[in-house]
Specification:
With 123 residues, the protein is of the alpha+beta class. The chain has 3 helices and 4 strands, in the order ββααββα.
Amino acid sequence: MAEEYPKQPHEIMIKVTRNEMEDGIRTKKEVSVCKLSDKLQLYLTRFGHSNAHIYNVIIHLLTEAKVRVDFKDYIERIELVEESDKLERAAAITLLEDYIDVFRGDDKGGFTTTQRIVIQPPK
């Protein structure tokens, strides 16, 4: 990684509260604690390393200490376990970009990946 930060993603612990939803009603609630790097790997693998939504979610988490992410079937509330892990926006962006560069390896965002974008009309 290019810069040193107070903590690296594998050292930052997050609390994830996952609420399963069915017809707008919460059916199940799970709470877990994991490393930020584990959640980043999951999101990057699932959504792709160029997905702007991942950037927004992680940058908001690192700058505000909490974020809520709504998916089709569940809602995740992600919080920093330690408030002291909050970063300034510029540092959060650099930390995330450095992590993604390492995660990508040799793939520098060329034409080897395809991103699926779904645009839906407002309801």
